[in-house]
Specification:
The structure is a single chain. With about 260 residues, the chain is of the alpha+beta class. It has ten helices and eight strands. The protein folds into two domains: about 80 residues, Arc Repressor Mutant, subunit A; about 180 residues, 2-Layer Sandwich (Beta-Lactamase). The strands form two sheets. Strands 5-4-3-8-7-6 form a six-stranded antiparallel sheet, with helices on both faces. A two-stranded antiparallel sheet has the order 1-2. It is globular, with a radius of gyration of 21 Å. The termini are far apart.
Length: about 260
């Protein structure tokens, strides 16, 4: 069922058709990194070209969409990312984290990324690439499974029970899944007891994810900083996994201290 039909079926909601169409376009384009034509958007959203054309043109004029001069396809512009950083705590978090992430990546020869909770998912808000020619990394803006991932379980483990419950409820609603709460409670207990999480990547061979919590001034978890440690078969990496683990622990402590976390220093 198209998104606008789903919204119409909800009782007690207010209607703002133009705004709904604009956000439908943005949400749709997140799945099309190469962009989409207005006609393609209309088909996917179950709307007519006429319904979307003026909306898309205005969004382009305002700088929220970008039109390719070669293909006429529209993509989401960086203006949205810039606004999101300036309107949320992400800006201060990234500003504090990036110099430390750069030092960490240089010291261990591995990439690292910073993840925050975003609804029922994890969202990568900062990435520092490893300085060499070989490595593994995620991209800024990537979404991750907050239930299964190393970063996600760190976020859940160090969130308040109320906050963790909200995240899990959103995950079940957004992805129409049923979470095994007993299994997850066991995992969270282990992560909380360790103070971090470290395990083989459930997605990529040869990668061990290591993740530690970053805390804010209020003492609550602000993010998870994660190294997807890629083990090279010739052993040529700058640091081994144990060293990367220790340096990551020190890095999150310094970032938390800069954010004003109690007792972080």
């Amino acid at each position: 069922m198209p998104r606008h039909m789903e919204r119409k079926s909800l009782k007690g909601t207010y209607a703002a058709p133009a705004i709904e169409k604009a956000f439908e376009v943005i949400e749709l384009l997140t799945d099309y990194p190469e962009g989409a034509l207005v006609s393609e958007m209309a088909v996917r959203l179950g709307r007519t070209v006429g319904e979307l054309f003026r909306i898309v043109i205005v969004m382009e004029q305002l700088g929220y969409l970008r039109k390719s001069s070669k293909t006429d396809r529209y993509t989401v512009s960086y203006k949205l990312l810039d606004m999101a950083f300036r309107a949320t705590p992400a800006q201060n978090l990234v500003r504090a984290a990036m110099p430390e992430m750069q030092d960490l990546a240089s010291a261990i020869g591995q990439s690292c990324h910073l993840v925050v909770a975003n609804g029922g998912n994890g969202l990568v808000v900062a990435v520092e690439q490893q300085p060499g020619v070989r490595g593994f990394s995620l991209r800024v803006g990537a979404t991750i499974d907050i239930v299964q991932s190393c970063s996600g379980q760190v976020i859940l483990a160090f969130s308040s029970p109320q906050r963790a419950g909200q995240i899990l409820a959103a995950a079940e609603k957004e992805r129409s899944i049923s979470i095994d709460r007993d299994w997850l409670a066991g995992r969270i207990e282990v992560v909380r007891a360790q103070g971090f999480d470290s395990r083989k990547s459930p997605i990529t061979h040869g990668v061990t994810d290591v993740s530690f919590p970053v805390f804010g001034f209020d003492g609550h978890i602000a993010a998870a900083l994660t190294i997807p440690f890629l083990e090279l078969i010739d052993g040529s990496q700058k640091a081994d996994l144990a060293t990367a683990h220790d340096l990551l622990r020190s890095t999150v402590s310094r970032i938390s201290d800069m954010l004003g976390a109690p007792g972080a220093a």
